[in-house]
Design brief:
globular, 73% helix, mainly alpha, Na+/H+ antiporter like fold
């Protein structure tokens, strides 16, 4: 007989409600101020600040899954035949992304070792962009500095999520202000079909252990249905806004769970390694911008060394090609997940042997 799922305690329910309220207020404030990507960055900064101040923050896993699936369905609803015109550039840019990821990882690692005295294994894991959950699990197995790695990784996501929209707006690569029109919303029947397909594909991808299964499963289902013409229309505006505020709240709650003392002790390492990573990525972005016809704003978000869910959410709110960005961040996610254990084994082994 299967045991029923335990109900959340009163304190857990209160923490969830409080986290959501703070996220909504932060996102609403930044949107009202017409800051680029304000719904995401406002919720993220508000929740992170609230958590660092000492209040418990967090969202239950089922709610997090719903947010990620809503984000995926919203991304998929933007797919159209015109978005695949640059497919010929994908092999070139994805190859360059792999090289950029390799260079960024070793550049950040070298910085952390030389200037902050990190051991080689911890530095390599902290320098690997994206795939945070896999990196943390590997760090635990290798007895690396888990707290330091988490601060460096999450700090990078926080900075990129807040800074990329501002950078694109300041350079004239995107506008800011009210949310752009995304077309007519789908009918209730179409939304029901879309939700059912999203759940089914997400569960299948989770069963085969596909990375970021909830978001990419929903995105794949929505992309196929819209691309084939079986479903027309976008998600309602309230669902679109919920996805943006929700992903910002999720990112902020990750950072908010870290103790202020831990953050301060690794702040210089986080900022320095971020500077190294973003400089290396900028070199590759410039090379692609000068040699291909891909839009610069698409390349900036696709090559930003941040979390896949956060960068795809930015693609959604900034009206950047989600297919291009999704293909590149998924490629990097897979590359990091496959290559990082081998890199740590080969290049981090010497330091580990000294520690034994």
């Amino acid at each position: 007989m299967q045991m029923p799922l335990p109900l959340p305690s009163r304190s857990q329910a209160f923490t969830t409600i409080e986290t959501l309220v703070i996220g909504v207020l932060g996102g609403g404030l930044f949107y009202w101020a017409e800051l680029p990507g304000g719904l995401i960055s406002g919720a993220m900064i508000a929740v992170a600040t609230f958590g660092v101040s000492g209040r418990p923050v967090g969202l239950p896993q089922p709610l997090a899954h719903v947010i990620l699936m809503t984000l995926g369905m919203s991304l998929g609803s933007m797919v159209s035949p015109t978005m695949v015109k640059n497919l010929s550039a994908y092999p070139v840019t994805i190859t360059l992304l792999a090289v950029a990821t390799f260079c960024s990882t070793f550049g950040s690692s070298l910085y952390l070792q030389r200037f902050h005295g990190w051991d080689r294994t911890s530095a390599l894991l902290a320098g690997s962009p994206g795939a945070l959950s896999q990196i943390i699990m590997l760090a635990t197995e290798r007895n690396a500095d888990v707290a330091g790695i988490a601060v460096v990784q999450i700090f990078r996501v926080i900075i990129l999520t807040a800074a990329v929209p501002l950078l694109l707006a300041a350079t004239g690569l995107m506008g800011h202000g009210p949310l752009p029109s995304r077309g007519l919303p789908a009918t209730p029947l179409a939304l029901a079909e879309l939700a059912a397909a999203a759940v089914a594909v997400s569960l299948l991808m989770r069963w085969i252990k596909f990375p970021a299964s909830w978001m990419f499963g929903a995105m794949l289902a929505s992309s196929v249905l819209h691309g084939a013409g079986w479903v027309e229309g976008t998600l309602p505006q309230w669902a679109y806004i919920t996805a943006l505020v929700g992903i910002g709240t999720l990112i902020g709650s990750r950072f908010g769970k870290i103790k202020p003392r831990t953050i301060l002790s690794h702040l210089a390492a986080a900022l320095g390694s971020f500077a190294v990573a973003i400089t290396i990525s900028a070199v590759f972005v410039a090379a692609i911008a000068l040699t291909t016809h891909v839009k610069l704003s698409d390349v900036v978000v696709a090559f930003a060394p941040g979390a896949m869910d956060a960068m795809l959410a930015l693609a959604l709110t900034l009206h950047i090609d989600p297919v291009f960005v999704g293909a590149h961040h998924l490629s990097r996610f897979i590359f990091v997940s496959i290559a990082t254990p081998g890199i740590v084994h080969l290049f981090g082994k010497a330091q580990d042997d000294l520690d034994d």
